[in-house]
Design a protein that fits this description.
This protein is of the alpha/beta class. The chain has 4 helices and 4 strands; from the N terminus they run βββαααβα.
Length: about 130
Amino acid sequence: MAIRVVRLGSPRAPGEGTRIGTVRRPPRGVPKSQFAKRDWYDVWLPLLAPSLATMKLGLAADTPARWNAFARRYRREMAAPDTARVLDVLAALSHGADFAIGCYCEHEARCHRSLLRELLVARGALFVRGTS
């Protein structure tokens, strides 16, 4: 049992389980009834997405210093009590269920999902090796 970190819209891996979209907005031009069928996500959890202002900061992060500023701000948002409790739940669930979390960004290393992975690892979450 473990979490996979995925790019939303990519083909699902065998045994991936429920796919959770940790994005601010649903995919454009896709009917809600098609989100899961087209491998976007089964459940939308925008609480784990960066706020609009933080997302803009991340998209503009063209230097290590700017990326670090984005990362600090995102971690601060994820430390809010309601968000922290959701992260605790996901970490606990990773010990008994297979599921995936994801975002639209092409590269995990320059996406909030890399930070989300770190936050969940710090809470003891289990991850499938080699997922991104």
